[in-house]
Design a protein that fits this description.
heterotrimer, A alpha/beta, B mainly beta, C alpha/beta, B: mainly beta, 31% strand, globular, C: FAD/NAD(P)-binding domain, 2 domains, six-stranded mixed beta sheet, 19 strands
Chain lengths: 465, 81, 384
């Protein structure tokens, strides 16, 4: 039983590209900066740092992240690893758990850089062991030297699938198929052609997957995974002109032992929602995301700034630029003389991100049709599609109504996992607005945490404590 | 190598390695069963989904966020939050 | 009153759901509306105890009638809302409070109920995990719990099956009156004509009827609760604090129970906590002092739970009246009725409220004495 309280200028929540660049900028401006990161080493998903250091196909990226982390530490940033933020109030005060200990920060300003998590729509068989997100497969291979499987299918939508396909191939997986919902790569290639500054990066992305060119299936989705206690086969189907899976154009891939599936990312908004930060909805930006002033990163709550994927999924480059802008704005809020950051660099990076967003087309309608009545939609509480449909028939019309009447979204993930799928399914089968679903409920605590840690953290945060 | 205990059996493991990755390798991706008995494995791999919750020294923990410590006692069943 | 025709019930919490069912079964055409999802305000935040114990000295006949009706509903709806007759404990921390418990026990036994005083030893058999420093406890074996979400859903479904209409996300913005009579309600989707309107809007009720010159003494009070992650069966019944000479609900209360899904639900309120005017327009965050007090009480009474993980908190507004009783009946213009003032104990009383409203609109005698709920006890309410 212990609690640490830190009074400081700026608290950064999340140690990915946005959080690290915000921390560096604020520390350089003279602020005392504490950065909280959930994992053993900062870096986030993009700059993840293997224990063995920079090697393998992603070594340039790992090394770049390592330099940013080192620069932040050299500028005086205190990094708290294994720190899971579970509570926040607009005072501002941030409550975190580090193992069995409590960590309470009372900063003058906060930068939210909580990133995003893989977005997965439910389909028959998606709860089988061996079915996981591309992000999970990437962490296994890059961080933990473990293959997600030997014979792997990647499926979903977006450039991240290509990144992971290349890395898994290099790690020794047999990548059987890359199932990309977008009809063809033409829009992507044309878009890259218009951004010469990014050609080197594009080449590094495309080269490792070039040998897999024959394994790509464009314009298709996974409709089911099958197996007894483990995924053994995967069925895919082409998308028809109506945007729905064409029953006649099916293919079953046998002898699969891992299926990595994701349709982009969802911003991780639960901590800023505890603070009362306003959100907007844009399915193509990952759904609900924080509303900010791009010039400063300011959210709707005074003293709370944000940068990176939590403000709308756009990738690492915009996150780095926006992180600097938000870090400097937070420093100014805390009373330091600081510049404003390079808004034009952010605009250029966002321009490329918007091109990528338009080059890929998430098949929302098709995804909403995939669950069968017995398909689990809420993984935590094991609530199936038939149960949700019955609640809808009885009059439930939004996430709150479905949750109360079925328990979908009441489990430990607090609806982070099922909101996207519930919204798609009810949009497709009942005509409901997907914006009425998938807003992470803002309920303290953001993650389950021992009662003793909650009590210690709150007590440490009281005035005069 | 450090010994840890998984469901009552002694398993050789490396301190500091990720528990989720170890359980993924040992169980051929199967990691635990839900209340209804359905098998589950690693899913999000980054602490978001709670599919990989096991009991570590009697307390629920997400295997994907847990570093292996010598002498750790892991129970795969019963970890369901 | 003796109205016929179409009745709008505004507010689909447990009070509105029970009222809609009673009116539909009485032969009225009923439209039940809610500003958001059914039961998503205070009903969904409720711990849904159906208790006669230490609740009200003057409402005992009504409470006994209500708990019988709940048991009937459980049989009629085949367990749809997980009715559990788990009993209720009120723990006693100070010797001085034993006479208070004895007073309530005598009162309830005289009404035919079976509460008793437990020694520490018997308490251990009734609630083994309750090992905190207590001197005694009272025990009411007939008190029960229901799943609040499913109870609302079940009663609405039953009303709909009997012919009622239900619409969620349809807030009543105003009540139309012409020639001294209610003629309908205004919603964002258009006007709905009605021969009578029953406002079952909890703390919003006063705001909705104020433009009609009706001043209801109903104030919002924060209702907060915490839940842990699922646990093996640890707590068998409802565990509350004994009423104390140091003050009743206004001075603080505790309720602890385990849901059928396994979560431990608990709250301790040490101060009154009336919300500021207009606060009910948004759902606020949980108070940190409340979280600390609640964890402190839970882990003092159940020390084994200290390492358990907190899963969730929630906050809603309950409707508080000056005498802790519902206000139920006709007010203001002809055809306007209200049923609000749960005071945090609305679940148990919902069947009574439905009966009082149905009797009033049918012009038939009420099966129970409705005097405790008479709006006329507050003259500014403009009872008719």
């Amino acid at each position: 039983m212990s609690a640490t309280r830190i009074d400081c200028d700026i608290c950064i929540v999340g140690g990915g590209p946005a959080g690290l660049s915000a921390a560096l900028a604020a520390a350089k401006a003279g602020a005392t900066v504490h950065l909280l990161d959930l994992f053993e080493r900062p870096g986030g998903q993009y700059f993840m740092q293997p224990a063995a250091g920079a090697h393998g196909p992603a070594r340039r990226q790992i090394a770049a992240g390592g330099r940013l982390i080192a620069a932040a530490r050299a500028a005086g940033v205190t990094v708290h690893e294994n720190a899971e933020v579970f509570g926040a109030y607009a005072d501002p005060v941030i409550y975190a758990r580090v193992g069995e200990s409590a960590l309470t920060l009372r900063p003058k300003a906060v930068v939210i850089a909580t990133g995003a998590h893989d977005r997965v729509a439910p389909f028959p068989g998606w709860t089988l062991p061996g079915v996981m997100t591309p992000g999970a497969g990437q962490r296994l291979a890059k961080l933990h030297g473990t293959l997600p499987g030997r014979r792997v299918v990647l499926a979903g939508c977006g450039p991240f699938l290509m990144v992971v396909a290349g890395q898994l191939r290099a790690a020794g997986c047999d990548v059987l198929r890359v199932v990309e919902a977008t009809p063809s790569p033409r829009a992507l290639l044309a878009g890259i052609a218009r951004h010469p500054a990014r050609w080197g990066e594009a080449l590094r992305l495309l080269t490792p997957v070039a040998p897999l060119a024959g394994r790509f299936r464009f314009g298709a989705v996974v409709t089911a995974a099958a197996g007894d206690d483990h995924v053994r086969s995967v069925t895919i189907a082409r998308l028809g002109a109506d945007g729905l899976p064409d029953e006649r154009a099916r293919e079953t891939i046998a002898d699969v032992d891992a299926l990595l599936v994701g349709h982009g990312f969802r911003p991780s908004i639960e901590v800023p929602r505890l603070l009362g930060c306003a959100i907007d909805f844009d399915q193509d930006a990952g759904g609900h995301h924080l509303r900010i002033d791009r010039a400063t990163g300011a959210t709707s709550v005074p003293g709370i700034f944000a940068a990176g994927e939590v403000t709308g999924v756009a990738g690492a480059r915009p996150a780095l630029a926006a992180g600097t802008i938000a870090g400097l704005a937070a420093a100014r809020h805390a009373g330091f003389a600081a510049g404003k950051g390079d808004e034009r660099a952010l605009a250029r990076a966002l321009d490329f991100a918007l091109m990528l967003r338009r080059a890929y087309r998430v098949p929302y309608r098709a995804l909403g049709r995939l669950p069968r009545p017995e398909t689990v939609l809420c993984r935590c509480e094991e609530i199936d599609a038939a149960t949700v449909a019955a609640a809808h028939a009885d009059g439930a019309r939004d996430a709150a109504g479905i949750k109360l009447w079925t328990r979908a979204g009441m489990g430990p993930c607090q609806g982070r996992g099922c909101g996207f799928g519930l919204g798609l399914q009810l949009a497709e089968t009942a005509g409901l607005d997907p914006a009425a679903f998938g807003a992470n409920p803002s309920r303290f605590p953001a993650r389950p945490v021992p009662l003793s840690v909650v009590a210690d953290a709150l007590a440490a945060g009281e005035d005069g404590a | 190598m450090s010994d840890i205990t998984i469901d009552g059996e002694t398993v050789a493991a490396t301190a500091g390695d990720n528990l989720g990755a170890l359980l993924h390798r040992l169980g051929d991706a199967r990691l635990r069963a839900t209340l209804s008995g359905a098998p589950r494995g690693l899913f999000c791999g980054m602490g978001t989904c709670f599919d990989c919750v096991v009991l570590v020294d009697g307390k629920p923990a997400r295997a994907c966020l847990t570093a292996i410590r010598p002498g750790m006692v892991v129970e795969r069943q019963g970890g369901q939050p | 009153m003796g109205v016929s025709g179409h009745i709008v019930v505004a507010g689909a919490g447990i009070t509105g759901a029970a009222t809609a069912l009673a009116l539909t079964e009485a032969g009225f055409a009923v439209t039940l509306l809610d500003r958001a999802a059914a039961g998503s305000a205070v009903s969904g935040a409720s711990l849904a105890c159906l208790g006669t114990h230490m609740s009200s000295e003057i409402e005992l006949p009504q409470l006994i009638w209500a708990t019988r009706r709940w048991a009937e509903w459980d049989r009629r709806f085949a367990g749809a809302f997980h009715y559990r007759r788990c009993g209720q404990i009120r723990f006693i921390e100070h010797e001085a409070d034993i006479p208070v418990a004895e007073h309530w026990i005598a009162l309830e036994r005289a009404a035919g109920l079976t509460p008793e005083l437990l020694t520490r030893e018997r308490l251990r058999r009734v609630e083994p995990a309750l090992t905190g420093p207590l001197v005694a406890a009272s025990w009411s074996p007939t008190d029960a719990l229901v799943n609040p979400f499913l109870a609302v859903r079940c009663l609405i479904s039953a009303a709909v099956a009997a012919g009622a209409r239900f619409r969620s996300h349809c807030p009543v913005e105003a009540i139309d009156v012409a020639g001294g009579r209610v003629t309908g309600v205004v919603t964002p989707g258009g006007r709905i004509a009605a021969d009578a309107v029953v406002v079952t809007g909890g703390p919003w009720t006063a705001e909705l009827v104020a433009p009609l010159g009706v001043a209801l003494p109903i104030l919002p009070r924060k209702a907060q609760c915490l839940a842990t992650i699922r646990q093996p069966v640890t707590i068998r019944g409802v565990v509350g604090g004994c009423k104390s000479d140091h003050g009743g609900v206004d001075a603080g209360y505790t309720q602890i129970q385990q849901s059928e899904a396994g979560q431990i639900l608990f709250n301790t309120v040490l101060a009154g906590g009336l919300a500021e005017a207009g606060a009910q327009g948004h759902v606020p965050e949980v108070d940190r002092r409340f979280v600390l007090d609640s964890i402190d009480t839970l882990t003092r009474l159940f020390p084994a739970l200290r390492a358990v993980e907190l899963l969730r908190s929630w906050v809603r507004y309950e409707a508080v009246t000056p005498d802790d009783r519902f206000i139920v009946g006709a007010v203001g213009p002809a055809g306007l009725l209200v049923a609000a003032g749960d005071n945090g104990t609305g679940f148990c009383r919902a069947p009574v409220i439905g009966e009082v409203i149905a009797a009033a609109l049918s012009g038939r005698p009420c099966a129970i004495d409705s005097a405790p709920y008479d709006p006329g006890r507050f003259p500014a309410a403009g009872a008719t």
